[in-house]
Design goal:
190 residues, alpha/beta, two-stranded antiparallel ribbon, 10 helices, globular
Amino acid sequence: MPEFIDDMHRAASLLASTQRICVIGCSGGGKSTLSQKISAALNLPYLSMDREVFWLPGWTQRPRAEQRQIISRIVQSDQWLMDGTNPSSFDIRLPRTDLVVWVRLPRWRCLLGVYRRASRHVGRHRPEMAEGCVERWPDREFLSYIWNFESRFAPRIVHELGTHGPVVPVLTLKSHGEMAELLDLAGIPA
């Protein structure tokens, strides 16, 4: 079983002293925004799995073997913050991870976040996405993914965390307030 951290002060202390962080969670929960703030404040290279690993221009998914090669290369670095869930790559990432931050907001917040993001970026490229992947309105499949994320993917995430990172501390953030508290305690501007 992974080591879940309940003490926000301990989590902030770990965050401030760590070199390799995985930020995971459902789309629309605020992973990328949180990741970029932490990355900038701690001077850790920010790596968006959507941009660097998953997508090629035109929303073409990169072949899985190539994704795993890229992730293997990234995690060999001494410092990084990787933004993206993908439990199928936990076997590569978790042995090199110092801290997992799991953004685990309610699905209604994630759906709201996706709609807000789309309204700001639709028809344009988002910085955390691969070039040539123009933001579009969420379709039924993507909305279903978000709606069912907790029931379909969270159990697998917990299993993979326990299997590949049983000694890696995991901080679960369940609200924007908890995200702000973590940043504040770590001395990171919100």
